[in-house]
Amino acid sequence: MAVQTVASTTHSVDLGPAAALSCRECGHRVPLGPVFACEECFGPLEIAYDFSGYDTEELRRRIEAGPASIWRYAPLLPVPADVAGKPNLNPGWTKLVKADNLARELGVTGGLYIKDDSGNPTHSFKDRVVAQALEAARAFGFTTLSCSSTGNLAGAVGAAAARAGFRSCVFIPHDLEQGKVVMAAIYGGELVGIEGNYDDVNRFCSELIGDPAGEGWGFVNVNLRPYYAEGSKTLAYEICEQLGWQLPDQIVVPIASGSQLTKIDKGLRELVELGLVEDRPYKIFGAQAEGCSPVSTAFKAGHDVVRPQKPNTIAKSLAIGNPADGPYVLDIARRTGGAVEDVTDEQVVDAIKLLARTEGVFAETAGGVTVGVTRKLIENGVLDPAKTTVVLNTGDGLKTLDAVAGTGLTATIRPTLDSFREAGLA
Ligand SMILES: *Cc1c(COP(=O)(O)O)cnc(C)c1O
Ligand SMILES: [Zn+2]
What is the reported pLDDT for 9? Predict the structure, then answer.
């Protein structure tokens, strides 16, 4: 296992309440550093916090008085206390849209919300996770930011590196949507297309980490993964705070590697443990595209392990055939009484249009996946329409225009009223 040591990593690392790294499988603890796998059992390492000393009401007041970004939750994240003053993109605090029109269409009576993360600086939820990895990179003395990406992460890393004065070099499958390629390239870092799918890109990055060529590089979703992953907790924090410090009954979350879903669960449980929300049951539902549905396939088959698939779907941001956190997603869906479901590419496109036409929210394909899965789960009687439901839109439709390529002009007319009438528009 590639365990990197960078000069002065284990000394004087100030990442706020983050106390150590702890193995999700065996609990083995190691000091904070750029490592991601347990040296005892190869299990994934997670951040262990010291939240002792927080008074619930004081913490709530501090959060509410904090900046309109993820940094209002800095006391709960692996970042230094003065993080908001450092150069970064200040993502988060995105809109929680009360989706009454969509609710009517889907027959939801208990309150339906879209958590719209297209409002982040690079128009996807990835700005949340990259912001954590950036602080870890600063703390460990890295000078280059890198990642393996299905598209959105590449843009988020490029932008964060530009703002923070890091070099960036990111890796993507060579055949991504043009919107994602341009978004990743525009910030001036290096962007490398790999001939292969995301899983090939990821494998390549793992090799690069173990090679002298990758020395001094922080791969946000590989050797900085424990820090990166914590950024997804902020979705859970924001949703609860925006609901008036309440847990939602049901959340529908897209699955690529499964990291976001597992950390949303972690964030919800932390809020309960800290006393910031009242404990009550909630269900977490995972959403995939049929063309890349290793986790929903395992869920439906009752398996604990996830068999890798070769992705073939328009939902490219979710096209990870061998999802690292797949087994944990299965655990969470089962433990909370949720489910994992998938929809066809056609249903994804229908759902993108449905959301746009009902709520004025233009989602990327990943948002089509969550809305489509929500509709399917309601039709199948799995999701309770009488309960408060939050559906995540994690990216912007402008990045995946090809998915809705047939959408365009209603008519082309001459600039005359006759022509307007002839077209049947009067
Ligand atoms: C990366 C990504 C996700 C979730 O990714 P995980 O690997 O499961 O954390 C969801 N939606 C979009 C648009 C993404 O880019
Ligand atoms: Zn372990």
Answer: 46
Instruction: Supply the mean pLDDT for the chain.
Output: 95
Pocket test for ligand 1, best of 127, 149, 259, 260 (most atoms within 8 A of CB): 260
Is residue 374 lining ligand 1, measured as CB closer than 6 Å?
A: no
Closest atom of ligand 1 to 263 CA is 9
Query: Could you give the 3-state DSSP secondary structure of residue 100?
Result: helix
pLDDT score, position 11: 54
- Inform me whether the pLDDT recorded for 321 exceeds 80: yes
Residue 40 has pLDDT above 60, yes or no: yes
119-137 confidence digits (pLDDT tens): 999 999 999 999 999 999 9
For residue 218, give every residue at least 6 positions away whose Cβ sits within 8 Å of its Cβ, in sequence order, or none.
Answer: 34, 133, 136, 137, 140, 142, 144, 145, 146, 224
**Stretch 99-109: mean pLDDT, rounded?**
98
Task: Output the CA torsion sign for 70, 74, 78, 84.
Answer: positive
In order, the DSSP letters of 217-260 are EEETTTTTHHHHHHTTHHHHHHHHHHTTS---SEEEEE-SSSHH
pLDDT tens-place string over residues 271-304: 999 999 999 999 999 999 999 999 999 999 999 9
Is the Cα torsion angle 164, 160, 257, 260 positive or negative in sign? Answer: positive
CATH number of 95-123+232-404, picked from 2.40.50.140, 3.40.50.1100, 3.40.630.30, 3.60.15.10: 3.40.50.1100
Class at the top of the CATH hierarchy for domain 18-53+126-228: alpha beta
User: Cα(151)–Cα(141) distance, rounded to whole angstroms?
Assistant: 26
Residue 256 Cα: closest atom of ligand 1: 8
CATH topology of 18-53+126-228 equal to that of 95-123+232-404? yes
Domain ranges of the chain: 18-53+126-228, 95-123+232-404
Residue with tokens 């009242």: 278
- Report pLDDT digits (tens) over 359-396: 999 999 999 999 999 999 999 999 999 999 999 999 99
